[in-house]
Amino acid sequence: MQNFYLIGLIGNLGSGKSTVRQMLEQLGARGIDADALAHVVMQRGTPTWRAIVNAFGTDILTYDGRINRRTLGARVFANTSALHELETIVHPAVSTLTKELLRETPQPVVVIEAVKLIEAGMNQWCDALWAVTCAPAFQIERVMRTRSISAEEARARIAAQGALDDKLRLADVVIDNSQDLAATREQVTREWQAIHPETAQDKSAWLWNLPRIDMSPAMTTPLPAPTVTITPSPVPPPAVVSPAETVSPTSPPAPPTPVPSAAPSKAPSEVQVRRTRRSDLKALAVAIAKRENRPHPLSHEEAVKRFGSGGYRIAIGDDRIVAFAAWEAENLVATVREMWVESSFIASLALPQLLALIEDEARTLLCEVVVVFAEIAAPLHVIEEIRASGYHSVEPSALHPVWQPIVRERMKLGERLWAKRLREQMVTRPV
Predict the structure, then answer these.
(1) What is the CATH number of the domain that holds 146?
(2) pTM of the predicted model, to two decimals?
(3) N or C, fewer C-beta in 10 Å, the chain?
């Protein structure tokens, strides 16, 4: 892990934090949006999702069991204690995911956009705290436009975040976003040019959850990364259960009942991997529904569509699909996503074979590298088998320039890259 200069970016709703973050990204910083990460940790079936449902009931869910953020927001922004309870659940999960992203960042400057950055205690690890301000009239108008809510609701949501005055006293940089974009960009560029990454404090203790040690000078050799097992989504309060467990009888049920995905009582002793066939459509529809936690198998029409576009490779055991992955090849790069296995019992048996099959086919197509897009919240047994198969966690910028456009085009929010070169030297030229 290399050290980096961390900017904490704060400001109330509608102030223009995202605009400033995007400007910093254009200048070369890596940007992390805490609100976007909150979307990731609140996905259906995660420990955070379960804790929120336990705390606020099933009436905050949509028909397919997802959290209706507008319904939840209307409830918590009108109730201070409810908002605090929600933050107690979500903030630790976002913090854990943020650290996971930061541990292997290659950029020398990183900016984290978060409304409650100070409340979460993250500011103590920031090398600079930037605050974005805006004239109230512009702020309310932006919130109304972006959230599709009334002026009264906008004022209530802004008020729920508390006054910014006390936070401004802690800020090292204040950006006034009340004027046009050119004026804001001029301020951001000026402050960017004043950054000295070499002054960054060492963040090893924070990122690896170690006791903090006072070290000087500020820029030191980071502590070696300990061998730990990372759980992407933390389990808040005792009422929460992990995705591998079932909700207790007293827990609110998630409507409708999802397709069963628990490990069978008897795991197959061996599996065979191959391409999907038309005769596999029904079984593939069930397997995809299990992976996506759908209440019912895919329709025949949807299964046909996915079959035609996904490039699925499957593992068969005891006459059922026990694992699958979708892949495609373009301009020397093979990309893999939607990797799924029926249970942790079968992971070590099926996933290495699936990856080996894809790699063999990729070599036939003269691919130089295989890149796996794995969700950050993917089960650990999936991540461990990817790692054991010779893949390394990388940032897009660390890939060969020829491969980067393909990967960036396909990468989605909440995914982590794992790459494996199929040959040491590039021997072909992309089309």
Answers:
(1) 3.40.50.300
(2) 0.52
(3) C
